[in-house]
Amino acid sequence: MKPDARILVASQSNVAVNHILSRIAELQGSQGVEIVRVGRAEKIGHGAQVWTLEQRMADWRTEVLARTDGVLAQLKERLRTLRREHKANQELATNVLDELLECQSWLEELAGELEEFPHLSGEERQQKSDALAETLVLIRGMLPEAAQGEALPQLATEMVRLSQVIAGLLSPAFPDSREARQLALVERWRKIFGKQEEFARPILERASILAATCLISGGFYLKNQEFDWAIIDEAGRATAPELLVALVRARRAIIVGDERQLPPMLDEDLTTAPLARLGTTREELAESLFATLVAQGKDEGLPTVQMLTMQHRMHPAIGQLVSTVFYGGKLTHAVDAREREHGLPWLTRPVAWFSTARLQRHAETRQGQSYYNRAEIDAISRLLHRMEYSYRELGARREVAVITPYNAQIVELLAEITPGGLFWQALSIEVATIDAFQGRDRDIVLYSTVRSNPQGTLGFLRDRRRLNVAISRAREALLLVGDLPMLEHGRAGRDGNPYQEVIRYVRTHPQDCTIDELDQEVGRG
User: What is the per-residue pLDDT across 116-136, written as a single tens digit (0 to 9) for each?
Assistant: First the structure.
């Protein structure tokens, strides 16, 4: 890949795109690689705002306006001098003339601020409105008493009225000077510069890396851009149309994904009838084009299909569990165990299974089409409290994720834990479904399995791809909370029960893993 290559970075999700840009920014250091992030601001999120097209345009506008401040000041000063010399202004005292010119400058600035109102929030708009109103009162008070007139209730109309009054006082017959025309031209140019869509093109053209979700890569701003390379991450989660939109944007492509993790996730609004009119089905869209390409490449023995075997995220103990169960033991570890120490004195291994089987009322509860498990919620809450107290004593902080397959469990966990509450000083906690957390990681992950029933029904827990995602999100410690005997012997059909392999590994690797039977309250402290 040439140093001056233009690269499209894309993924199925905004989170994945932002994560890639963060890593690029870390690696490039002080090197000036121009990055532009394209997409809807509310979808991109705060972490990538610095790279957004809108922010780049705003930065460019600020830079250019700063460069023209001197020109503007010179023109205004020259115009002041000419007006002082003009006979039409001889009847005005010098101090009054200076005040009128100052008022005129204020009004020109206020006009620009008024244009920003539609883009402000309600509170910001009110604060700005109050400030403008106070300034207009001040300006009116600086006018000669006979010219003040009666203030109008609307800010915009009052600004126009005051501008007209001042213009009449300053130059009822002032000649159309070259300086006046130049000043008007510069001020009009400053008002529109960087605020219109055509100003986006030069920013996009000079960028080395443009980043967007797969679908946005075919949208308005990027549809006419040409790329040497497209790098598409989390390709296994993209539908065939999403992947193809990004692929056709570049001459060559690097597609990165994991066909052994979750397949594309479809919007519930994609119903059978409209899809049939397009000649496709939900089942076809749910098939991973990436997985198909990988399978075909392997069948043909193509060298373009390569398995990345070095993992950089997980503690080696967690990484080896994932490698053995899901990747045939082929993964190696780029991080040392000492780099991934969790520091909790009471958690003796990086992998721990807290079994709820001995607890009273450990069974699942059905809620609509979903499930929750009260025993697991209580156990997780106590574990988190114990972590919080421990890390406070250590003077340390950790990022923690609580993940689960079921939305009903999410609702109950959020109500119990209140992740944004003031109590949590040492822990930054996020609660999410497994599907939503693919491609992401945290220092510590607690996995709530939920299912616990006499029939041994696993539901979609039997999907080994979802289990792979669940246990490969943690950097330092993985805590599984659930009914171990039921999951070990649960019915999974012809595809087999993936939990049997995980539990077998945990039992046979006591140097890395431990099983704790919860038969009483998890201690705090």
Answer: 666 667 777 788 788 888 888
